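Consortium newsletter contribution from the modelling node. Members have asked for a concrete example of what our holo predictions look like. Here is one, prepared for the magnesium ion complex that several groups have been discussing at recent meetings.
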Amino acid sequence: MSTGISISRLTVRFGPVLAVDNVSFDLADGEFVSIVGPSGCGKTTILNMLTGLVPVQEGEVTLLNKPPSMGNPDVAYMLARDCLLPWRDAMDNAGYGMEIRGVGEAERRSRAADLLARVGLAGFENKYPKHLSHGMRQRCALARTFCLDSPVMLMDEPFGALDAQTKMQLEDLLLELWTARKRTVLFITHDLAEAVAMSDRVIVMSARPGRIVADIRVPLERPRHVRALQKDHHFLEIYADVWARLEEGLGNSAGAA
Ligand SMILES: Nc1ncnc2c1ncn2[C@@H]1O[C@H](COP(=O)(O)OP(=O)(O)OP(=O)(O)O)[C@@H](O)[C@H]1O
Ligand SMILES: [Mg+2]
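And here is the predicted structure:
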């Protein structure tokens, strides 16, 4: 399998602060990998380097065997904030990334309409963000991200600000979209259940300076349904393992709650 993302001996310093310390990991093409780790351990920094937003200081980073560069069409980025433009309706927001990339209007509208329908927003194409609920806005952002049709997707806590129920719906939706069209996904979350339910592997980082303390395979069958998994004993074993490794990285053995 070819390599979707490769990070080798990445070290990041912000002035005197060592933020990321000698981190290496690879994602095969089409693999779904999550990173979990305490706040400030460098997760967002790693994504920012992959997008070319922050230059690589030490180590090597490649996406599809090329160095990161800003505006790389191979990469789509999704954040916890939906970043929708208030003066554009759902259709034009979903098509916004494509517009920046120069996709023609007819193609944009057809792809945006298709993705909006798939995320459950058919009939809301002409609504503005202020008329949409938080979960609907994040669905629209998910549609915009998938519209880009980029082989690599970087997601920084995309469902972090949603209520538990909406979050589960969107997790299932993301898995469905990903299954239909495999992309390499690097997914950051603080929710360990989410990480295990979605991923092929979960990478656990330590508190700052961020180091990798574990890279745990999740050999659960697909297709998966997030809610059903919560009762699966194999899922629960892996979840407990991720928790234990995370605690190791915190340098304490405090309770999991
Ligand atoms: N532009 C910057 N200038 C200075 N320090 C920075 C900068 N960006 C990040 N840092 C520092 O690097 C460390 C890692 O930050 P980062 O945002 O990557 O953490 P994170 O793992 O994403 O945390 P969270 O889970 O809270 O989002 C932090 O100590 C942060 O203060
Ligand atoms: Mg972050």
